[in-house]
Amino acid sequence: MRRVKDAGVVVLAAVLSSLLVACGTTVRVDGAKVDSNVPYLSVLEQAWRDGSASDKYAQLAKETHCWLLRDPSTEALQPRALCGPIRHLSDEGAPGVFDELRFEPKLEGDGQVSVDASTISVGQTGIEPPGGVELYRPDGKAPLAADQVPMPEAPRADRGVVALGDDELLAGGGVPAKNNVIYTPSEDVKVVKFGRVPRLQGGGDAPYYDPAENEEFLAITVEIDRQDGGDETIESSRSYSVRVDGKIKSITENVRDASQATIVASVPIGKDAELIAGVAGLDQTISFRTGERTSKTAAGWYREKSEFDLNKSFDDRVKVGQFECRHRVTFVGMEISAYDRLEGWAPDGQMWVYLDWVDRLTETEPQVTQAGLYQYKDAKIAATGSVAVTVDGRAAGKVVKGEPASEGWNIREGRVLLQVPDSAKEIEITYGPKGTFQARSYTDPSPRNGSFSFTPITFGLSLS
């Protein structure tokens, strides 16, 4: 917005007085000499008073009029007038205090001119008299000095109002130094600018609003980076709202499809507002005053490091009588997350840890009879109990699903899902699969059935 400058208004008044001409001066329209009383000026002035001068958010001088523009070299009156002095709220920063009227004069004969009111329109507002012309009125009245026309007061916004604004509002705003991103299963919400703004953009009669008494405007500009492949459940759960002074106002319809948005909130002076991003039943918040995340939930996504390489191989054989079995698997990495597509959000104070494995093989040695028949069915590795997790020296973690169980098939890759405290610094994994075996009905090996245990391996990982 432009701001009115009062400097130089006395000089402007002096210049105007030197440009004024009055009744008795020769005036022409379309080259013809016309009545210097220019009766049509009253039509212009009435149209201005009924129109632009009635602007709800305008400040008029104590005395206002319209002036025609006369070219002193040709004595011609231009088809436009300046009316005022007047300041419109929307003209903040404009150099002058006049509205421009445009019209179509029509010669009627005998030096008379008429103007059809339908041809009158408002041109620019907040302008100064152009150079090279004179201000003409039959009565010779001069406009009051610009310094006698104060800027109109802007309307005040409602308390606690929340609205979207143009990104330019925060062109000079601050950039958060840290913790300025909210991660969700469907999108990342990043604050790129934050700060106080002097006003809220308006519309219609009110081009802008000042804050309510004892309130101030805070604003943030966010970039929303959506992830591909979001499912319908997650998409339908997405919500955005703003919390101001304990009250929550939804802005979902304004923001959910945007890639960038500037949000303005009116708050009690010195207080804060929070943007709330909700997905799949969990809300996360970020501050308007600092641009930093304020929620402590979903902590697994905000650690300095979330992915870790591993190369821990398990390869062991077990023999029970005639039964013999081999099992192998390689653990290749860990990944920390706050959300699992099937399990949802990790419980409060917890996080998910994925233990990735590849090349799993469970192989029962093909003991055969003299007739060439296999003695044993494929061994069964227990579906649970093969993985144990210790966190920071305590049995504080648990296995949720995904253990490398097998019944003799070579599986390329998989994941074990672990649940551990979100404060975890060290994780220790013990892998010691157990299983059972069973002879085929038509054979008689020793023993016919039983259980077995492989020798466990233990490996640790620092999450810092």
Automatic annotation (TrEMBL):
<keyword id="KW-0732">Signal</keyword>
<protein>
    <submittedName>
        <fullName>Uncharacterized protein</fullName>
    </submittedName>
</protein>
<feature type="signal peptide">
    <location>
        <begin position="1"/>
        <end position="22"/>
    </location>
</feature>
